[in-house]
Specification:
Blueprint: H1 6-19, H2 24-40, H3 47-65, H4 69-104, H5 120-135, H6 145-153, H7 155-158, H8 166-170, H9 182-215, H10 222-254, H11 271-277, H12 280-299, H13 304-308, H14 312-332, H15 336-354, H16 356-365, H17 372-394, H18 398-409, H19 424-447, H20 457-470
Helix pairs in contact: 2-6, 3-5, 3-6, 4-5, 9-10, 9-19, 9-20, 10-17, 10-18, 12-14, 14-15, 15-17, 17-18
Length: 483
């Protein structure tokens, strides 16, 4: 059930009406039932999410009960291995089987399991974060199974996140009264409408030319290929941001505040800055549970690596960045293209880290340090290299990615036999709305204001009219649903 469909609008209307008729445990049961129904529209094996939820719930209670630190660590590692095994089984079985087949020449298991665990990537990271927090005693193991079930299967964030901080989410699961928080509801409605507009009017309109290019990469000249790669960069951004805004809006209307996953990422001045603005919940998860623990392990005075290297902090940054971003790439999908995409980002960040002082001194000597020219230059360069890396993120294979890169730098020009949009009208309307969106993003960036400050009643009415006239409804799932 897509957020951008009449079916979901009806579902949400019923959910909101019932939500404010109940309080306490009754409201939790309602939200769990609604979440289960929502999840069941994606898979007939929806019961599995409850089995997994109960497994993590039990694991955390065991961790909270054990006091011996050594025994507790052994239990945690055992739990993580068992959960990771499920993750690999459901998402990477086919991929690993193909690797073994190529290495040995023997045929192993074909493809992935017959029943898919939809949203497994987000559920796993949410569960890992929760178990780590219980282990390090940042939170106590949640004993209320209704609260914990909501943490895992709450439908606005179930399929594509965000990955919530367990403590913050669980604190909001009391529901002591039935009253509507009008401030939260108003903000939520604005986010939902704006997200709906971005998805149905912009992101889904960019889908067709992008699919055309990546399915037949040699059909277009250098100019069209370059433009379409930029289109994909905006399609991915608008599509995922639309989902995140709609998820945030739905949750606020239901009375629970979740994280906003985006903060103008295409105005980032470096790749490190980009990851502070893009998919923020994933970035924070990777930082808190992989990068910082690895960094701490290497930089401990007792660490062998700390004693070997003269500048262990530089070595630590390089190693932990490569590991973290490789995991980030692998998490996105069972394909070498995602791993390469992650490694490219690691290279970008390591290069930026190593050359930071040099670039600063050059900028100062040219009189450009902290100037607007320098800032604009950094934004353009960062957007360009991020967009380049997205070629691997979107391509079906490494070979297809290199074909597109070759096409870009071949500087060829010829008239395409087919227009790469449905028709010229689609092209012009897409460009028009994309330009409007970019201008709005620039205004937000320059004025440094919150999105909802600009979404007054007149703007919301105009957006709803635009959605009715120009929107594409339920044609394409959100891109991050497949991750």
């Amino acid at each position: 059930m897509s957020f951008v469909s009449l079916e979901f609008i009806i579902f949400l209307s019923i959910a909101l009406a019932l939500n404010y008729l109940l309080k306490g445990n009754a409201r939790k049961v309602l939200l769990i039932f609604l979440s289960f129904y929502f999840y069941s529209t994606f898979t007939k094996y929806s019961f599995f999410i409850f089995i997994f939820t109960f497994l993590i719930y039990t694991y955390a209670l065991i961790l909270g009960f054990v006091k011996n630190s050594t025994f507790k660590r052994v239990i945690l590692y055992g739990q993580l291995i068992s959960v990771l095994s499920l993750f690999i089984y459901f998402k990477y079985l086919g991929f690993l089987s193909d690797i073994l087949t190529n290495l040995t020449g023997k045929t192993f298991i074909q493809g992935n399991p017959a029943f898919a665990f939809i949203g497994i990537s987000y559920v796993m990271f949410q569960s890992f974060g929760y178990l780590f927090d219980v282990y390090y005693e940042r939170i106590k193991a949640e004993k209320n199974i209704l609260n914990f079930t909501l943490l895992i299967i709450y439908f606005p964030k179930l399929i594509s996140g965000p990955i919530e901080k367990s403590k913050i989410f669980l604190m909001q699961c009391n529901f002591r009264d039935k009253s509507i928080n009008t401030v939260l509801f108003s903000r939520g409605f604005k986010f939902f409408v704006y997200g709906f507009f971005i998805k149905s009017v912009i992101a889904d309109r960019l889908s067709f030319p992008v699919s055309r290019l990546f399915s037949t990469p040699l059909s277009f000249d250098s100019i069209i290929t370059s433009i379409t790669v930029i289109f994909y960069s905006f399609q991915l951004y608008t599509d995922f941001m639309a989902y995140s805004l709609m998820a945030l809006g739905i949750s606020l209307m239901l009375g629970i505040e979740i994280i906003n996953n985006f903060n103008l990422p295409y105005f980032a001045e470096s790749v490190s800055d980009f990851w502070k603005r893009w998919h923020i919940s994933l970035s924070k998860w990777l930082r808190d549970y992989i990068f910082l623990p690895l960094n701490y392990a290497i930089l401990r005075p007792k660490s062998i690596l700390f004693k070997i290297f003269r500048r262990p902090e530089k070595f630590s940054y390089i190693v932990t960045t490569i590991i973290t971003m490789t995991i980030c790439g692998f998490w996105h999908g069972a394909n070498w293209t995602f791993i390469i995409w992650g490694i490219i980002h690691a290279f970008y960040m390591i290069f930026g880290f190593i050359t930071k002082k040099l670039r600063k001194s050059i900028s100062i000597s040219l009189g450009l340090y902290k100037s607007n020219i320098s800032k604009v230059g950094k934004i353009i360069i960062t957007f360009s290299i991020i967009t380049f890396a997205f070629i691997f993120f979107r391509a079906d294979s490494i070979n297809a990615a290199f074909k597109i890169i070759h096409n870009i730098f071949s500087f060829s020009y010829y008239s395409s036999t087919e227009f790469w949009f449905y028709n010229p009208t689609e092209f012009y309307s897409c460009i028009f709305f994309l330009i409007i969106f970019i201008i709005f993003e620039i205004v937000l960036y320059i004025n440094n204001k919150n999105l909802t400050e600009y979404l007054n009643a007149y703007v919301i009415f105009a957006l709803i009219l635009t959605i009715i006239v120009f929107g594409k409804f339920g044609e394409n799932d959100f891109l991050y649903f497949k991750f």
